[in-house]
Write a structure and sequence with these properties.
The complex is a heterodimer of chains A (about 190) and B (about 240). With about 190 residues, chain A is mainly α. Helix content of chain A is about 75%, strand content about 0%.
């Protein structure tokens, strides 16, 4: 199975897609029980990160070239993600401090899984358009159980923005930084 | 240039989509704000019925004392200043808070809390402060609304604003029905509404998914035509 997945781009993309969906939906179901929220998020973030295991960092968009530019790009992405909330006076809730570590774990795990491993697999299968479209659709589906339906439009649009950044800049560092900033604030 | 334009376009689409729902981009993994629902949303899990509240406010020398009345679950609190009621001839003013057992959604407003009825057996003379708790299972409200009747008309009470996390407060010079909510897009008659009636964000999500799905066959065809050797998106490495 593993060797088949390695040799077939379609199978590899399918396995990664199903894996990240299963992890995201499991952590969403665990979140219904307040005793398991933090543990579910932490383990979920780590499990998502596993999807990128064994892939060269450069293929995931994690190269170190132009690192300062990538960091600035991440700050810019974080600013765009937070802008609508920040513009609503007094409507910006802060994530409880105890959740900062799990917020970081989930943000990094999601980016490694969606814009990292899944993007790379879909890119090998059908090129950048398939990678951007596929990660956006799966990202939205992955949040269907954890988010009220009203939020899914913003979720899909955020996935599209992060996926397009991954394509346009061949970079995953900025989406990770932007995602962490947004999740720490909200 | 094409890539920059695509990024800018995506940023604009995101800003519009996120603006339609408060607080905006929200990853939904903060602890669920406990809330007792009259009509629980599907993702609420186990639910307990919302509580009612009652208080007897003493009248001394013809005036009522400062007093706070709240429900047992603390989801609504109303604070009265001294001499808030016209208590002529009374030794006590009785105040009741009762959650409405239905969830009407008036046109143009989406409520994100239960509707509460606050009554007193003496007329109000001064403004009182109303504080409503809300949940993070629904978009954040913009106002606390008041009406004389659950069927409306509903109007925002003065000074409605965010207070402590997941609370809104405002002041009112009349008792009646209270709920927190936000201005919703008004669906035309006969339109099927989803997710509490806030159709527009869902339409945006569906449109985004349709647009990206529509590009898939085209992308796969172009990929096949360009041949297997087109390694066009590799990281520059270093």
């Amino acid at each position: 199975m593993i060797s088949a997945a390695r040799s077939s781009p379609l199978l590899r993309a399918g396995v990664i897609g199903l894996y990240v969906l299963a992890v995201e939906w499991t952590r969403a179901l665990l979140a219904h029980d307040s005793r398991f929220i933090a543990a579910g998020l932490l383990l979920g973030g780590m499990a998502l990160g596993l999807a990128a295991l064994g892939r060269p960092a450069t293929r995931l968009g994690l190269g170190r070239s132009r690192f300062a530019v990538r960091v600035i790009g991440g700050l810019a992405l974080g600013a765009v993600l937070l802008l609508p909330a920040a513009a609503r006076s007094g409507a910006l809730p802060l994530l409880p401090a105890g959740f900062a570590v799990v917020a970081i774990a989930v943000s990094i795990g999601e980016e490694l899984a969606f814009r990292g491993a899944l993007y790379a697999a879909l890119d090998e299968l059908g090129g950048a358009p398939l990678a951007v479209a596929g990660t956006t659709v799966l990202w939205t589906l992955a949040h269907a159980l954890s988010h009220p339906p009203e939020f899914l439009g913003a979720v899909a649009a955020a996935g599209l923005l992060l996926g397009l950044w991954r394509w346009a800049c061949k970079d995953l560092v900025a989406p990770i930084i932007g995602h962490v900033i947004a999740d720490l604030a909200l | 240039m094409k890539r920059l334009a695509a990024l800018a376009g995506a940023a604009i689409v995101y800003l519009i989509a996120a603006w339609l729902v408060a607080p905006g981009f929200y990853d939904g993994f903060g602890p669920q704000q406990p809330y007792s629902w009259t009509c629980p949303p599907p993702q609420a899990g186990a639910n307990t019925k919302p509580s009612s509240g009652h208080a007897d406010i003493p009248v001394r020398n013809g005036t009522t004392e400062a007093y706070s009345v709240y429900t047992a679950d603390g989801q609504i609190v109303i604070g009265f200043l001294p001499d808030s009621f016209d208590a002529t001839g009374k030794t006590m003013v009785h105040v009741d808070i009762t959650p409405l057992d239905t969830c009407p959604q008036p046109q143009g407003i989406t409520f994100v809390t239960n509707i509460y009825r606050i009554t007193a057996d003496a007329p109000l003379k001064k403004k009182s402060n109303v504080t409503l708790l809300y949940s993070n299972l629904k978009p954040h409200p913009d106002y606390i609304y008041r009406a004389d009747n659950p069927s409306g008309p509903w109007a925002p009470i003065s000074g409605s604003q965010q207070g402590q996390p997941y609370t809104m407060f405002g002041s009112t010079d009349k008792l009646g029905y209270f709920a927190a909510g936000y201005i919703a897009s008004t669906p035309p008659p006969g339109v099927v509404t989803v997710g509490g009636g806030q159709t527009l964000p869902i339409i945006v999500a569906v449109l985004i998914v349709i647009v990206v799905l529509a590009g898939l066959p085209l992308a796969v065809m172009r990929r096949r035509q360009s041949g297997a050797g087109a390694a066009d998106d590799e990281e520059d490495g270093s």
